């Protein structure tokens, strides 16, 4: 039976083989050209040693015994040295050029594969996953994975060079060959030992780097919250602790690598000393010529850097394996069923029909999914009507909107009107580009259509007052706009598509009362054929609706007229009255601030 150490070595070799095989398969033709350059360099290097031997024995040494030197021999010697030198130069250019192309083409392919996998996953897959960690897997981890690729053609050529040179040295002189035969495997053994010990350090470093990247991304997103609560010191300390973990694991790996590289310098130097000593003895006994010894020393001198290249490959291998493991975790994760695929087309006359709709938190495999459960929600909304979804905080209003939009998994049957649909979430997200780009999202809308949508969203005035109008850059997440402005741009983005179904999650929450009334009236007048399902938390929004769906603890209590719900359900009446009280208090506070000023 094999020992745990043997099984561990076998596991590492198999893992390394799978990594390199998988990466080579990305661009095999480019790798083949780079490999041909590496092997050609190895053959030319051995040939250069043979040429040096021939020149010393047949051009230089005989010059002392048999003057003058024949011109033909000199020309042959020059031709050998220059020709082989040119061949080595061409091989180096080919190997380095195509090795670099292979490395960064592979990086491009891996980054694209990860990004495409992200795009194919539904929204529910991303819940509970750190944005920074996902970005790191498509960037930092890809870079770590391909770091091993560029030296592989040279390292492969170095193995060929090692085999050819050792064979030639053994054929030339057994004692000289024996010295080289001991040195080569010694370096390989040191490389393997280093790779095994460094693997844990690099794996830990890569994991810590992913955690740190996620924390930095999260901290930047919440910078306003951090400053508002004076938590800068705590946040700095948290990021410092994560950075320290990255630093410590990296320092441990670098310290180990420094020891290993010192060994790579020491073994070839000692080997060359041994070659000179043994060679001198063999020359004095007449068993070796000066040219053969010089060629052997020259050969091993040329071997030093290629042998180090093998070390570089093995030293980068743990880091590449750590990055590859994190990438394959994403690429091997199965594509989740898109909840949108389970939403059918509603019969004529209906904007939305939902029967037995249920959403269970965590069904997507995310422990962070804390939205309430929807249990057997039954909805029917005629085409062109407005349904207001009302309920206390945590009753499932936002979850219902996201389920109807196909952003969350569900059981039961959902059917929506056929045609363009739009969803406006409570947190209005804007990209860092211009207002026009945020509205059109790549579609070729005319300016007239854009301004009409902005007018319906009561956004025409503030957009036209911007210095560049539609071409104003709003900054990351629309940071240059107020919350109400962002909400109106997001609403205009939805209205620009003339949707047959508009799903809105409390889209007027950041608007002042007069602007809210204008937006709601525009929706009623200009989108008469559009079915609207919207979360409402203001009495004015609820009064606009044709019907109201009252949710409590994830269940639909009743769907009906606002007046009927007010008379039949005490909880519903209490919520609406609380909305009205909050609105009056907010208005009084604004009025008082105006008087104080």
Strand and helix map with partners:
Blueprint: H1 4-24, H2 28-65, H3 71-120, H4 123-126, H5 131-138, H6 140-146, H7 151-172, H8 174-221, H9 223-228, H10 232-284, H11 290-331, E1 343-345, E2 350-359, E3 374-382, E4 386-391, H12 397-404, E5 411-416, E6 421-424, H13 435-440, H14 447-456, H15 460-464, H16 483-495, E7 501-505, H17 513-526, E8 531-535, H18 539-544, E9 547-552, E10 555-560, H19 562-568, H20 570-596
Parallel strand pairs: 1-5, 4-8, 4-9, 6-7, 7-8
Antiparallel strand pairs: 2-3, 2-5, 9-10
Helix pairs in contact: 2-3, 2-7, 2-11, 3-6, 5-8, 6-11, 7-8, 7-11, 8-10, 8-11, 10-11, 14-16, 19-20
In short:
The chain has helices at residues 4-24, 28-65, 71-120, 123-126, 131-138, 140-146, 151-172, 174-221, 223-228, 232-284, 290-331, 397-404, 435-440, 447-456, 460-464, 483-495, 513-526, 539-544, 562-568, 570-596; strands spanning 343-345, 350-359, 374-382, 386-391, 411-416, 421-424, 501-505, 531-535, 547-552, 555-560.
Based on the model shown, name its key terms.
four-stranded mixed sheet, alpha/beta, 2 domains, six-stranded mixed sheet, elongated, Rossmann fold, disordered C terminus, ABC transporter transmembrane region fold
């Amino acid at each position: 039976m094999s020992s745990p150490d043997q099984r561990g070595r076998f596991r590492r070799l198999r893992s390394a083989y799978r990594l390199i095989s998988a990466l080579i398969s990305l661009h095999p033709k480019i790798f083949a050209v780079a490999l041909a350059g590496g092997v050609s360099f190895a053959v030319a290097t051995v040939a250069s040693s043979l040429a040096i031997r021939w020149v010393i024995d047949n051009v230089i040494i005989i010059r002392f015994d048999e003057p003058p030197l024949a011109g033909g021999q000199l020309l042959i010697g020059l031709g050998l040295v220059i020709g082989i030198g040119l061949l080595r130069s061409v091989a180096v250019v080919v190997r380095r050029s195509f090795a670099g192309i292979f490395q960064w083409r592979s990086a491009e392919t891996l980054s694209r594969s990860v990004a495409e996998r992200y795009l194919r996953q539904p929204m529910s897959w991303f819940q509970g996953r750190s944005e920074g960690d996902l970005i790191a897997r498509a960037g930092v981890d890809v870079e770590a994975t391909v770091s091993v690729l560029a030296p592989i053609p040279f390292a492969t050529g170095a193995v060929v060079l090692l085999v050819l040179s050792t064979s030639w040295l053994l054929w030339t002189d057994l004692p000289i060959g024996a010295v080289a035969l001991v040195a080569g495997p010694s370096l390989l053994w040191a490389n393997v030992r280093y790779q095994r010990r460094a693997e844990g350090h690099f794996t830990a470093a890569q994991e810590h780097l992913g955690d740190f990247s996620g924390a930095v991304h999260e901290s930047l997103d919440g910078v306003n919250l951090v400053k508002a609560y004076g938590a800068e010191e705590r946040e700095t300390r948290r990021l410092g602790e994560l950075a320290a973990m990255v630093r410590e694991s990296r320092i441990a790996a670098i310290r180990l690598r420094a020891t290993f590289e010192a060994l790579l310098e020491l073994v070839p130097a000692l080997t060359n000393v041994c070659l000179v000593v043994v060679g001198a003895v063999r020359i004095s006994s007449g068993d070796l010529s000066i040219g053969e010894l010089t060629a052997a020393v020259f050969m091993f001198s040329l071997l030093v850097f290629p042998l180090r290249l093998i070390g570089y490959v093995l030293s980068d291998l743990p880091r590449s394996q750590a990055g590859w493991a994190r990438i394959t975790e994403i690429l091997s994760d199965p594509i989740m069923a898109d909840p949108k695929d389970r939403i059918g087309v509603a019969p004529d006359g209906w904007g939305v029909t939902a029967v037995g709709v249920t959403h269970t938190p965590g069904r997507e495999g995310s422990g962070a999914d804390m939205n309430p459960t929807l249990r057997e929600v039954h909805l029917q909304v005629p085409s062109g009507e407005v349904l207001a979804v009302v309920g206390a905080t945590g009753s499932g209003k936002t979850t219902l909107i996201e389920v109807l939009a196909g952003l969350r998994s569900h059981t039961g049957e959902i059917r929506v009107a056929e045609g363009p649909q739009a969803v406006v979430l409570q947190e209005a997200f804007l990209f860092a580009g211009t207002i026009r780009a945020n509205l059109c999202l790549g579609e070729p809308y005319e300016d007239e259509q854009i301004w009409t949508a902005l007018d319906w969203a009561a956004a025409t005035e503030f957009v036209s007052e911007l210095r560049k109008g539609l071409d104003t850059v709003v900054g990351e997440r629309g940071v240059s706009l107020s919350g109400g402005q962002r909400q109106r741009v997001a609403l205009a983005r939805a209205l620009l598509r003339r949707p047959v179904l508009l799903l809105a999650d409390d889209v007027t929450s950041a608007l002042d009362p007069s602007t809210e009334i204008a937006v709601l009236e525009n929706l009623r007048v200009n989108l008469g054929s559009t079915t609207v399902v919207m979360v409402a938390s203001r009495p004015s929004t609820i009064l606009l609706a044709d019907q109201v769906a009252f949710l409590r603890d994830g269940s639909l209590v009743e769907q009906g007229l606002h007046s009927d719900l007010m008379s039949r359900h005490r909880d519903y009446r209490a919520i609406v009255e609380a909305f009205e009280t909050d609105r009056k208090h907010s208005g009084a506070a604004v009025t008082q601030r105006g008087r104080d000023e």
